[in-house]
Design goal:
homodimer, 385 residues, alpha/beta, Rossmann fold, 6-phosphogluconate dehydrogenase C-terminal fold, Alpha-Beta Plaits, 3 domains, 4-stranded parallel sheet, 4-stranded antiparallel sheet, 14 strands, 17% strand, disordered N terminus
Chain lengths: 385, 385
């Protein structure tokens, strides 16, 4: 084993004796801490942000780039030092453009025989194949992929908190040294992200669906705007801006990403093309129920996306209020709910004209049910869950 | 002429004598004011919001809906009265579901022979054809289309400021009475929106590009998620959320919209399908330059979308700063720019290692150039535009 891993007490600090490639884990096993020094290769948006995050947690960090001015800008913004790293780096984070990841990982494994090597690129099978083909010992290489980014690029867009609360795929393999995997999980933890374990091919299919296909679809939709007369674009609303925002991303970067995942992506693109064919046929045949079925599948897809921080979407609950059949009653109810700082998500009225009272069902976020009921009862409404 | 229009002084208020179907325009001609009463037919998101906007500017407004409870909710939220409107309504705003717009316009033209009639639906050729086929005098009908909305629907999502700063297409025709057009422009103004004049077919092609095609593409992309195993969705980032957000819209509503614009939309869908075919071929042939060209067209499309409030995208300007070749100089420059509350959008360094000074080019918003130069000079930097 080329690096060490030990347990210290929860209050302990990483053991440091100059032999630095180590991860320390507290007694509970839940809070791995990363030692140092760490070298980040590539000082673009992701690399500079990783280096800033590590530096901000006190890890000795070095950053390099093919263009030393880019590394210098990153270092000046708090990404550590852009000087020559010591020989005892314990972790190399490869954050180069996608096409260079495989060769950069091989170089890092060779140059730092005591270090764990990971990368942050968004495709995992291709660089792994390149590493394996190079004939080096790949057990110290564990692929990674932080799910954060921006349509901006370069070190000026970087931020130490870019990964806070984000998912970060850790793509371990059977031939990985378990301590190397632990080191990469410690990196994820140090950057404030949440590790998501995935197998190589599963990861590439998942990001094809959640990232690469949406990017290409956004580019094609934006392309339809590039061909439009300018007066048509005056009608652009928020929808088209949302759908096309990511299409502003760097074409050279995205060319490399989609080519690296070409085969997986082609299958999904063909699915979308089949969907378009079905839509065109349905529109031509004025087949409303077929169109609606496609739209309904889309609604189901948006509902399947987990909540922003990886949790489930906000659950709603219903509060039922009895309401007198008199002018202004509903308005008074809305005002009272508003005073209680409760956001009404949806509402239904159940009113039999023969009765003096109707029932109003108010949908609110689950955690607002109790405050709403309390506030309404304090204002003499009959409210219950 | 069935309604009046007159000019009053800029300080004047709408003339009111009980004969109410009128628009008043100030002496400069730039600030049309709408009289009343106005009837809004359909109390969903858009109808209720129009009625709330009119009510908030003091216009006597009535709101109706097939479901009187929906109208009652809207009225209770500030959308005017849900009682029977008087005979002298000057303007009827049809805000029914798309399939019902044509017949609702015909009913309004017939029921209120002294009123201008407009609608807010997102397709214009189909309802116009229905109105013309009904044999009524269509000169009092001027189509409209506010570019605002939400993936939410119904009166609970409505807001008086939904249209503030938004574009609102006014689709006049040669056979429209000019005073009717003026009345609809006054409605747009009263709602805080900006009128955009468009011809019928041109409008429908424009919204096919900027709204209907993006919706269908978002639905197909979200559909690919609906078929994915749940573990793949853990990797969902902001990009897929943005691309698919509008796909959460009401399928019954959107079915009507896309079917009403079916032929125009089919042409655009076929363009996207051709783009997918080209992408699949390029990926299969590992043809990076072809992939990049498609992505580059997408970038051009995103850049073509005008700024949020209809203006051009934020223009950037470059400030050049001479910087000494010494440790910490860049960091000090960033800190000083930050203190000046100026956001650095991009940055390039031009440094000849043989010289003691380099040049840093800083891109900032046009209106931040002067404050940045002033702040940097006060801190002894040599900075110029």
């Amino acid at each position: 084993m080329l690096w060490e891993c030990e347990r210290v007490s929860p209050s302990g600090h990483p053991w440091s004796d100059g032999y630095a490639h180590r991860v320390t884990i507290d007694a509970a096993g839940s809070e791995p801490l990363i030692g140092g020094p760490v070298l980040v290769v590539g000082a673009g948006l992701i690399g500079a942000s990783v280096a800033m995050a590590l530096t901000s947690t006190g890890v000795e960090t070095y950053v390099s780039d093919l263009d030393p001015r880019v590394a210098h800008v990153a270092a000046s913004r708090g990404a550590g030092a852009d000087t020559e790293p010591p020989d005892n780096v314990c972790l190399v984070v490869v954050a180069t453009p996608p096409d260079d990841v495989g060769s950069a990982v091989v170089r890092a494994l060779t140059a730092y025989p005591g270090a764990v090597v990971t990368d942050v690129s968004s495709v995992k099978a291709k660089p792994l194949a390149e590493v394996q083909a190079a004939g080096v010992d790949a057990s110290r290489y564990v692929g990674g992929h932080p799910l954060a980014g921006s349509e901006r690029s370069g070190p000026m867009a970087s931020a130490a908190d870019l990964f806070t609360g984000r998912a970060w795929a850790v793509v371990a393999r059977d031939d990985c040294d378990p301590d190397a995997v632990r080191m990469v999980r410690a990196l994820v933890h140090a950057c404030g992200a949440t590790a998501v374990d995935m197998a190589t091919d599963d990861h590439d299919l998942a990001v094809a669906r959640t990232s690469h296909l949406p990017h290409l679809v956004a580019a094609l939709t934006a392309g339809a705007l590039a061909r439009a007369p300018e007066r048509h674009l005056a009608l652009s609303g928020q929808g088209i801006r949302d759908v096309t925002r990511i299409a502003a991303g760097d074409p050279q970067l995205w060319r490399q990403i989609v080519l690296a995942n070409a085969d997986t992506l082609s299958g999904l693109l063909n699915e979308v093309r089949d969907g378009i064919d079905e839509l065109v046929a349905s529109l031509s045949g004025r087949d409303g129920s077929r169109v609606e079925a496609i739209l309904q599948t889309g609604v189901a897809g948006t509902a399947a996306i987990p909540g922003k921080h990886g949790g489930p979407a906000l659950p709603l609950a219903t509060v039922t209020v009895a309401i007198p059949d008199e002018p202004g009653a509903l308005a008074r109810l809305f005002a009272d709910a508003g005073d209680a700082q409760v956001n009404i998500e949806d509402l239904r009225i159940d009113h039999d004209p023969g009765r003096r009272f109707g029932l109003v069902e108010i949908d609110v976020a689950e955690d607002r049910v109790a405050p709403l009921i309390e506030a309404l009862r304090a204002r003499d409404w009959s409210a219950h869950r």
